[in-house]
Specification:
The structure holds three protein chains of three kinds. Chain A is an alpha/beta fold. Chain A has nine helices and 19 strands. A seven-stranded antiparallel sheet of chain B has the order 1-2-3-6-5-4-7. Chain B has one domain. Chain B is an alpha+beta fold. The chains are: A alpha/beta, B alpha+beta, C mainly beta.
Chain lengths: ~375, ~170, ~110
């Protein structure tokens, strides 16, 4: 059976950062990613990132991914890092600490790591409406994959559901790809994403229907339109339903952490609405209740990629430290820097939800 | 009009707070920056990109930017760097009495060219006036353009975007 | 039908010209797509949006999550059912079919189960 010191599951911003941190400290690291390409959601982002210089603020997401890939290549060449794409981790066995995985659809394998970082990301949420399973109703991540990774037109005219950062950013990206936006529908009385992201698409003439919801996708086999309706403060429909012309409905109604492996590893889990689902309890170094397992990124609670990259660094650092590969001085220096960065990213009003969520799952240290 | 602001449109009383000081603005060659960033978010590339220190250091990265207009030289480097495309420059000294030059961020297709007549749009994408493109720069060589467009002087606090209409049959 | 690609983009260069175009079949119709793109993406570029029909209510399903998690895009590929076409790379000569129902596995002896 294959072995590795550190196994990172998920090659998005959090996982790659964890892997790089661990490799930079001399550990032998393996990364598994279920997708055909590394980089998770980062490779689909054409907008410039927020945050500070340390998180590559002002640089486009896919370019940040390229920086990470360059570093990954460096450690691969040094023989410290192995990366497997199109490889889905399928199970964690508590009894012997073995991880099973699937390459493509039909080949299976096993690997036994000493320490594990779960950076499995998140998955799209669905909301109930008539015909929400109809082809043409796509998750925002899927639309980004089609248009920004593969350069394929996802549709001619898109109705966006959700005005959080993802809904706003993907609308802007669709317009950059030359695709029309029928409008953005948001059930809350206020956009959920950054105000400046909304301003960018408002000035392109895109309407944002606050306090509206989607009632129905129209069409026979595929989407040929949609029905939206205003809602009141209790989310009850008011007024007349309105038909919207579109051939694609993009759902950007939130994400939920991907945590099946954490459950099967027996990590202590807690449902935290502010973090958008079940997440593992963890100490400040992102270590879960299982002493060999760390968590980072969206799998630990839905947040921005900038925070995910710092969490990955922390998890990688702590996992390697548990193997006694790190001097105390390096550990304290890096740990202090990373925690300061996270604190800065989460300090403002928009970080309030995250802060309150984290206060429910973070413990000072495991007993 | 909270609903309008809540959908990402700067409204009257808030517009007042982002206008550069009038007297300085009227005479400042190359113009002054207007920053429409009303929400505290963790972001500071405008400060990092400013070559003259006109955008003051952030005590907390979540602070909204504060400008020392006496130091602003209207260079447009923040216009191209801001991830929210929330910085705009207006030069009131440019051209004829009723004209001004605006430097607007642009990341769409088709790309404008000097000499193009474009449609100027406001904060909700409605047509305000015609404008004439005189220059396009790409300060950070990262595909974010700064389009220099001549606009009616009395509409600089309305115009925030351009629509480029290309005749495909060249 | 022509393949729907994004030809011009203000930020991204997809490198479509350098990619290798291969031929595959969808329900016995010949189609073209880029080698190693996800099968589901190649089908979408060819205007195909219905990938399977659900077992009980016989509703059409297509692309949805694109990360191999939702099972909406299961299809029969080279005779194998329940293939996650959003994370399976396209190869020349692949035989891709709409999956109706649960799909049937064949044992090595050719027995269906």
């Amino acid at each position: 059976m294959q072995t590795t010191e550190i196994l990172v599951i998920g090659g998005g911003p959090a996982g790659l950062s964890a892997a790089l941190e661990a490799a930079s400290l001399g550990a032998d690291v393996t990364v598994l990613d279920s997708d055909l390409k590394l980089g998770g959601q980062l490779i689909k982002q054409t907008h410039k990132f927020f945050g500070s210089k340390a998180e590559y603020a002002g640089t486009r997401g896919f370019e940040i991914a390229n920086f990470l890939f360059d570093e990954i290549e460096k450690y691969k060449t040094l023989g410290k890092l192995k990366v497997f794409t199109n490889t889905t981790a399928t199970g964690y066995y508590k009894e012997d600490g073995v991880v099973s995985y699937m390459v493509g659809e039909e080949k299976y394998g096993r690997i036994k790591p000493q320490k594990l970082v779960f950076a499995t990301g998140a998955q799209e949420r669905l909301i109930p409406f008539v015909n929400n399973d109809m082809p043409g109703v796509y998750g925002a991540g899927a639309i980004q994959t089609l248009m920004n990774v593969y350069g394929i037109v996802p549709g001619e005219k898109v109705l966006m559901i959700g005005a959080g950062n993802i809904g706003l950013i993907v609308s802007y990206q669709l317009m950059q790809a030359g695709i029309k936006i029928a409008g953005i529908v948001e059930a809350m009385p206020k956009i959920g994403g950054y105000w400046v992201h909304a301003a960018k698409i408002r000035r392109l003439g895109v309407p944002i229907y606050l306090q509206h919801t989607i009632k129905e996708a129209l069409g026979n086999n595929v989407v040929e339109g949609a029905v939206i309706q205003e809602v009141n403060n209790c989310f009850q429909p008011v007024g007349d339903p309105m038909e919207v012309e579109c051939d694609t409905i993009c759902l950007a109604v939130g994400l939920t952490p991907t945590c099946e492996l954490l459950w099967s590893a027996g990590c202590e889990m807690k449902f935290v609405p502010q973090l958008c689902g079940y997440v593992a309890r963890r100490d400040p170094m992102m270590r879960t209740s299982h002493p060999d397992i760390w968590v980072a990124g969206d799998a630990a609670g839905i947040e921005e990629a900038s925070a995910a990259m710092v969490e990955g660094r922390i998890a990688g650092l702590s996992a390697v430290a548990s193997l006694n590969h790190v001097s105390q001085e390096t550990f304290y220096d890096r740990s202090a820097e990373y925690h300061q960065r996270l604190e800065n990213l989460r300090a403002g009003e928009v970080g309030e939800k995250i802060r309150s969520g984290l206060s429910c799952v973070c413990c000072k240290q495991w007993g | 009009m909270d609903k309008l602001f809540n959908s990402g449109v700067l409204t009257a009383e808030r517009i007042e707070t982002v206008i550069p000081p009038r007297d300085l603005w009227k005479t400042k060659k190359n113009g002054l920056v207007i920053i429409e960033c009303p929400q505290r978010i963790p972001c500071n590339p405008c400060y990092e990109s400013c070559p003259t220190g006109a955008i003051l250091p952030f005590e907390d990265i979540n602070d909204t930017p504060v400008v020392d207009y006496t130091k602003c030289i209207g260079c447009g480097r923040c216009v191209a760097k801001c991830p929210g495309l929330a910085c705009f420059v207006a030069d009131l000294t440019w051209g004829a009495e009723n004209e001004a030059l605006m430097k607007l961020p642009y990341e769409m297709l088709p790309k404008p060219e000097p000499g193009d007549e474009v449609v100027c749009l406001d904060r909700i994408g409605s047509e305000v006036s015609q404008g004439k493109v005189i220059n396009i720069t790409e300060p950070w060589e990262d595909s974010t353009m700064v389009v220099h467009v001549v606009v009616p002087k009395d509409r600089v606090m309305d115009i925030r975007n351009i629509k480029v209409v290309k005749n495909n049959a060249r | 039908m022509s393949i729907k690609l994004i030809k011009d983009h203000p930020i991204l260069d997809f490198g479509h010209e350098e990619k290798k175009m291969v031929t595959f079949t969808f329900d016995n119709k010949e189609m073209k797509g880029f080698e190693d793109d996800p099968i589901a993406a190649a089908l979408h570029a060819n205007g195909i949006q219905v990938y399977r029909i659900t077992p009980k209510t016989e509703r059409p399903r297509g692309f949805f999550c694109a990360i191999g998690k939702c099972s909406s895009c299961f299809m029969i590929v080279d005779g194998v059912p329940n293939v996650r076409t959003c994370v399976t790379p396209l190869k020349a000569g692949m035989k891709v079919e709409t999956q109706k129902g649960r799909g049937v596995l064949k044992s090595e002896e050719g027995e269906e189960r």
